[in-house]
Amino acid sequence: MAQLDDLYQFRLLIEPWTAARAAERAERDGRARLAAEMATAEAPADDTYAAYRAFTAHDARFHLLVAELAGSDQVRQAFQRTHWHLHIYRLHYDRGIGPKALAEHRAVADAVLAADPDAAAAAMREHLEQSYYQRLRPTYAEGDR
User: Fold this and answer.
1) Count of alpha carbons within 13 Å of 122, Cβ hemisphere only?
2) Within its chain, how far is the Cα of 79 from the centroid?
3) Within its chain, how far is the Cα of 62 from the centroid?
4) Using an 8 Å Cβ cutoff, are 70 and 19 in contact?
5) Stretch 64-68: mean pLDDT
6) 123 neighbors 19 (Cβ within 8 angstroms)
7) Percent above pLDDT 70 for the chain
8) What is the pLDDT of residue 116?
9) Could you tell me the domains of the chain?
């Protein structure tokens, strides 16, 4: 549990900043790529492997794209090295977290597309806090009982 806490503390420090930078720095092409990613993203309709795989791929593309739009190669590389989206999401896919995460991704994307760094940072923080403190961490606490 301590490693997972550390990972989310790291993400809470880095990813809201990254989203804010993306809102400030993304150019027309980058914004078009983000809009296209969100236009093709779908909430998983079931808990099949195909649905899981498609949503996990979206999750990775989304977070990597936000880091890329921010101009932060270090954050992008850190995200790729840890593969945190795969390790965490695959363990809890059956709990219906896909639609919630997608709605949160849409809020981040909307703020980035609106060039609103404060809203982008807040939306990313909300996404990470909901993902960890409301959806994932309680499942680990259940296992500790």
Assistant:
1) 6
2) 10
3) 7
4) yes
5) 93
6) yes
7) 86
8) 98
9) 2-144 (1.20.120.530)
